[in-house]
Structure formats: structure tokens, C-alpha cells
Amino acid sequence: MSFAIPPAEFKNPRAEHDFVGRTCSISAVGAYVPERRLTNADLEKMVETSDEWIVSRTGIRERRIAADNEMTSDMAAKAACQVLSKANVSADQVQLIIVATITPDMPFPATACLVQDKIGATNAAAFDLEAACSGFIYGLEIGQQFIMSRTYDTVLVIGAEKLSSIIDWKDRDTCVLFGDGAGAVLMQNRTNTHGLLTACLGSDGSKAPLLSMPGGGCQHPATPESVAARLHYLKMDGREIFKNAVNAMQTAAKNALARCDLDISQIKCIIPHQANKRILIAVGERLGANSGQVFMNLDRYGNTSAASVAIALNEAVERGRIERGDLILMLVFGAGLTWGAAVIEW
Ligand SMILES: CC(C)(COP(=O)(O)OP(=O)(O)OC[C@H]1O[C@@H](n2cnc3c(N)ncnc32)[C@H](O)[C@@H]1OP(=O)(O)O)[C@@H](O)C(=O)NCCC(=O)NCCS
Q1: Residue 55 parent element (H or E)
Q2: pTM exceeds 0.90, yes or no
Q3: How far apart are the CA of 238 and the centre of ligand 1, in A?
């Protein structure tokens, strides 16, 4: 039986697609965090907690909080402009903008469209991606598909969050963990590197209740009752999330390394989702990594959900922890549940 594409009276652009001579890599990374710092000492005045408890249980010392008039799209646009300037690419050359976020400016239109307007990307398609804290690697994998298929050459993937807008500032179990910020990368075809080698993504919706914001969707639209029941805030079962995060990230990492026939010792830098220092240490140990391989900056930013890996990647590059040609492993985990691991030749 033949699977040859039949002749047609029209042109099928997809018929010309093949990936030979094509790679997809990150040509630049940038980040933006708001000015205002919320320290553990500040939190001690808001809920029954202590700097000692927060540092020993999470590793977090402070986090950034966006101004009242500073939206997710504003932070995303600042990170995006930084990336474009580093890559020497003009906004009108961008063909697709993907914004990973769980804190869009509003349910619709997509925050990506607001970013498209703010940066002047007049030739770009734009959409939001909701995979919670895993959104950045989901975004990389999707962006990569467009580049490898030759649909687009220049794709912006942004992770941006104003988590302070959905945090219950009376709930000490959650309010100490999260912060605001944005990170962005430009994905392009660069044939002098292998770029994104693989991304192993996963999900388990049966565990959705472990981490969610129950209100604001069609199940619990905003009503006086839903507000009174505090349904419009993030809810989490911390202990269960902790266990699932360690298991999912280490399994995804092992699968991604195996797909590339790589040993952990060949990885220059592991950039994990900055959830909790104890989670990252546990994952690193289970992978057989040495502590110097695991990059952490959560002490200063807390968990910024979809923005966290991009913000960490930017800092790792700026500090010279990653240089062109190095192999890096990125790990994510979040609500859904969702998770992922990506291997990149930087
Ligand atoms: C939330 C988390 C830090 C709690 O740490 P833990 O070691 O699991 O702590 P426990 O849940 O066992 O709680 C220990 C005690 O500290 C208390 N506690 C919780 N938050 C506190 C806080 N901010 N300050 C002081 N005490 C706190 C609890 O009430 C509990 O008290 P109890 O023993 O009297 O009931 C941890 O479970 C975690 O990080 N989970 C993953 C969260 C995460 O990463 N979410 C995002 C994923 S994308």
C-alpha cells in the first residue's frame, strides 16, 4: 500500500516540510521582575509565620510583588523587549507570541494579544497557554513545532505571572511561597547548534484538586457567595504537591536524558522550576547530580510559576553558568498536574 501524497490542483504547503537542516534553539533570553520586594519579615507582620520557618522549609527569603497598576502583560512585554534587543530582532519580525500564564490580565482576550500590541509585533499571531508552573517548557515544545515545520522562523515564548493577584494573603500555607515576574526567550532556527533536543511532557488530571483556583471559571463563576467562600484564591495541598513534584520531575528528567543518550554528568546546568529548595535538592539527589549543577534563585523570587524557569535561565546565562555549546536540562512541575523536562544544547 502506498502512502504517497496524491497529486492535486492546489499547492499543499505542508508537503514541502521536512526537518533536514533545521534546528530550533533559544537565540536570546530575558527577564523582568517588579521593583517591590516582600521579605519574610514583611510576611511575619501579615500571617502567623517566621523567617526561620520559611527559610528552613522552602529556602525563600523574599519575592517580588507587582505594582497595583502593573499587569502580567506589562511584565511580559518588558521581558520580551529585552529579548528582542539582545537578539537584535525587531518586533515586526516576530511571527508568533506564546504567553504561558495562570494570571492573565483578564479571562479573555489572551494576554499574548495584549503583549503583541504593547511591543508592536504587528506581524505576529498570539495566544495564551495554560499549563500552570509547567507552562514555559510546554511553550518551548509548541514553539519548536512551528519552527521545525517551517511554519515560522521567529517565535517568542514568554512565561509571566502576577500571582500576587490570586494569593490569599491570609493563608500562611501558600502566601509565603509565590512571587511575580516574567521571563522570555526567542526561538529561532540556528543551524550551528542542535538547540532543543527533546521535551518530555506529562499530565495527570485526576490530581487536579491538589493545586487549583476553584473560582472564576464556568464551574464557580464570580458571585458574592464565591467571593465569600474565598474560591478566587489559589488552594494547595502542600505535602502531596511536594511528593508528586519530586517524583514527576525526576522521572521526566530521566526519560529526557535517556532519549538523548545522555548521562547527568554531561549536563552543565539543571534549571528546575523554582518551587521549593527541598524539592530541588531531592530531585538533584535522585538524578545523581552534584549540588553545583542545580541552579537556584528562589531565595530572591520565590515561585513565579510559568515565569520561574525563564527567570532562572536568564540569570544563569548572565552569571556565565551557561555558555554556548553547553547542555542544559530544564525541569518543570505544576497544577494540572503537569510536568516536563527539556534538554537543550545552548
Ligand atoms: C508548603 C510546604 C512548604 C510546607 O512544608 P512542609 O514541610 O510540608 O510542612 P507541613 O505541611 O508538614 O506543615 C508543617 C507545619 O507548619 C505549619 N505551617 C504551614 N505554613 C506555615 C508558615 N508559613 N509558617 C509557619 N508554619 C507554617 C503547618 O500548619 C504545620 O503545622 P502543624 O504541624 O501544626 O499542622 C511544602 O509542603 C511545599 O513546599 N510543598 C510544595 C509546594 C509547591 O511547590 N507548590 C507549587 C508547585 S508548582
Answers
A1: helix 51-58
A2: yes
A3: 6
Q: Of the candidates 82, 115, 87, which has an alpha carbon nearest to the alpha carbon of residue 100?
A: 115
CA pair distance 154, 271, nearest whole angstrom: 24
**Cα of 57 from ligand 1 centre, angstroms:** 7
Closest Cα to residue 331, out of 193, 139, 161, 199?
Answer: 199
Question: 55 — phi, psi (to 5°)?
Answer: -65, -45
Going from the Cα of 340 to the center of ligand 1, the distance in angstroms, rounded, reads 24
Cβ of 52 less than 6 Å from ligand 1: no
Q: How far is CA 261 from CA 33, 112, 197, 272, 330, in A?
A: 36, 36, 11, 20, 16
Please tell me if the CB atom of residue 57 comes closer than 6 angstroms to any atom of ligand 1.
Answer: yes
Mean pLDDT per segment of 10 residues, for the chain of length 346 residues? Answer: 64 68 92 98 98 98 98 98 98 98 98 98 98 98 94 97 98 98 96 89 98 97 97 98 98 95 95 98 97 96 98 98 95 98 95
Nearest CA owner, ligand 1 atom 28: 173
- Atom index in ligand 1 nearest the CA of residue 236 equals 45
Q: Which residues are catalytic?
A: 133, 273, 303
